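Entry 14. Structure prediction run on the chain below.
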Amino acid sequence: STGPFTDVVTTNLKLGNPTDRNVCFKVKTTAPRRYCVRPNSGIIDAGASINVSVMLQPFDYDPNEKSKHKFMVQSMFAPTDTSDMEAVVSTECFLLFF
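Output returned:
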């Protein structure tokens, strides 16, 4: 599409966990100033799924811009021996595992 991109454009991404263990996830993009992702990290319970909203922020379209924006969803099994699950999905934790 060529715009105009004067309003937020939102789509939903459904993340599912078909396993019998809780899974942590984190969503990353090559264009973090262009997109708002909510939630951008979290925990998906065993056998459950969640919806993640990906929102393209308003901007001035430039036809000369090479915009090959990419997204990556990182995931890992949640540790079973932690009481602070928010710490599990922190950037530092994912840096240790990825």
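The chain has a mean pLDDT of 85.
Filed with the rest of this week's runs.
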